[in-house]
Design goal:
The complex is a heterodimer of chains A (236) and B (612). Chain A is mainly α and 236 residues long. Helices cover 68% and strands 4% of the residues of chain A. Chain B has a two-stranded antiparallel ribbon. Chain B has a two-stranded antiparallel ribbon with strand order 3-4. The chains are: A mainly alpha (236), B mainly alpha (612).
Chain lengths: 236, 612
Amino acid sequence: MSEQKIDGFELKPGFKGMASDTGSDQTMFKGVHWGKAMMWIFLLSDTFVFSCFLISYMKGRGSTIVDWPNTSEVFSLYVGGVPVPLLLIAIMTFVLITSSGTMALAVKYGYEKNRKMCGWLILATAVGGLTFVGMQVFEWSKLIHEGVRPWGNPFGASQFGSFFFMITGFHGFHVSIGVIFLFIYTYKVFAGHYESKKRGWFTKMKGDYVEIEILGLYWHFVDLVWVFIFAFFYLW
Amino acid sequence: MSDEYDNNKSYQAQSSEVIDGSAGSVNPDIDYVRPAEVGEQDLYHGHSFIEKWVFCQDAKVIGVQYFLTAVFTGIVGLILSWLMRLQLGFPGLAGFMTAEHYYQFVTMHGMIMVVYFLTALFLGGFGNYLIPLMVGARDMVFPYVNMLSFWMFFVAVAVLMASFFVPGGPTGAGWTLYPPQTILEGTPGSGMGILLMLISLSLFVIGFTMGGLNYMITILQARTRGMTLMRMPLTVWGIFTATVLAMLAFPALLVSAIMMTLDKVLQTSFFMPTILKAGEVLEYGGGSPILFQHLFWFFGHPEVYIVALPAFGIVSDLISVHARKNIFGYRMMVWAIVGIGGLSFFVWAHHMYVSGMNPWFGFFFATTTLIIAVPTAMKVYNWILTLWRGNIRINTVMLWCLGFIVTFVNGGITGIFLGNVSVDVPLSDTYFVIAHFHMVMGIAPLMVIMGAVYHWFPLVAGKMLHEGLGKWHFWITFLGAYSIYFPMHYLGFIGVPRRYFEMYDSPYMTSAVGMNEFISIAAFIVGAAQFILVFNIIKTLKTGKKAEQNPWKANSLEWYTSTVPPEHGNFGERLPVVHRWPYDFSVPGAKDDFIPQTTAPSEVIHTEVEKT
């Protein structure tokens, strides 16, 4: 947004202007929806959760007494008898990042009040997320089949399985929650709840297309976390 | 902030433009406040008894629910401390008391008091009740999530209490839950007990996150017209900063709880090193117990300030109101709260001086720890300077505040001892540590809670608590608390270790026996004295004197609601408009000795009111 105008308030230039705007009355973040601000702060908190997981992983991996498994072997997929390292992960990452793109488009069409396009794009995002979770289930079952367990594995340090299942599981849980909400919002958009100002099932509050953007924030965050997990688990 | 960008246009009016304040000559320019940015909040009013009092979405009801649940757990914690003192003062008197029971009581007392009592009471109880009222909002911004937050807390408490009744009893690993011993056989409650504790903590974190988002967004984005950040009562600043700390510190607790649950249930080895037990190597191996300590204290130290900062904020407001003086150095107080909050994330390893860290770590953390004393001392000076030449009313609320200042200074000074590595090492795990943290984060915040209860009870219930009973309550608690914790410093110096079930014939016990008996008797009396408050509340609700609106002549918005006690929506038809900070007491030239936040500048033009 190039020009920010909130009724009776104009953002002031410079650092002092920013300080003055921040400390002004009513709102600190001018024109920011309550739900959006909430999601940002929740994501900040969630960032600390994932940071704690990943830092623990680094510490755990750095201090094991047994060698860490060779990840490019463990995570490789056999295509016609030839091991292709990171193949499955590459596809999973591609699907997830693509779903971030469809999510962003859904937000755009939502704000344009293009109900049909918005709905289809959220559905596409949900399907992308579901595909990701499905492939993760495949990867887990493959590793479990090869003998990897949370308490040990045939390839090296037992912490490998522990951290892998815990962190990808926690991320997969986030994706799954997101997918559930994406399906709910697909229904809400197609049913036109935002146009008819229908009240929510639980909260009894009227909704708005800004909810799609809030959901989008969460979805992009989950994707971003995956990038870090990808880097720390599969590339290290 | 430069005048160039002053949001409060009202004060830019030249005095010549203003017609002096006789009634009816209101100058529209001087009283100008920007129009509302956000429309009226969509509130859902409950229709049935269940919606109004059980699954209620009104922050005030949720606050009272939090308060009562936290007080219930607090009473359980109090009873546990009685049982501990019974054993320490008079070993063997209680026949059922085994070493295992003692460890379980120690653990549960610690965890209950820190997390389920103090944190829930300050943030869940006072936070929910006061934030919307003080910033001039109709309710929390997400009332439904707020309701879920309380019920999540309720379930967490239920799970915690359930651990008393499972086979093996609750965990007895100490409230720090250090692995590996926490989940190994031989520690009391290493089966179901620890599992329920970890589940309960996780639920608490989830529930708190829901509440914390509400507190933060309500304060940041839902203030009323004219309520700038620097016009917020310090109570709100304290609760806000504590919530920020909690949102960033609880993740570490959640993660360590998840990892330890997996260590327990799935035999992973996140925290478990190779262990030899009775000549046999256990399944575990390769994990790092120190990692848990880092995670735990990354939560644990900010947790101290999660309890302390709301207390700082609340006591500032109480002192200002009951000394009829503006808080000395308001901005300094705000920045001190924020600064303490920021620093609290860089001191955690001072709990781990004896854990075998690199000595340079100790050096770093001792430095940061001592730096925290600077903003804290600033706050103490400011409280005292607020009292200086104030029109002090020695009522129950003020007594608790004075008690707080003295106790907090006491506990703070022993903190400086313990912050230094070389002094801490010999004092580690002695009663000196017990005395220190009970003074600084037990008794001191508790005194603020008591003061706050006497202060805000007229608002919540519409009736005045009995002053005489309140004073008895204060003096017994105050003198009793010092009888308990002063001798403990001495016990620490002669080397009595904490968490010991019995001292048997240790050489220092000759001098400690009598002292232990004395401490125990004092503890029984102080604990019993707390029921004076319970009695006072019940008596007041039945036969108490009806409170007038704003009985303390305070300025902040919670006293200017449409009804007392406030109804859902808080302020009736129109939200209040704020023109000043809440500390305009004893302003020279003013009609009364207080000017409410809602008073327009044109009404007090002839006074020497400060620009805020």
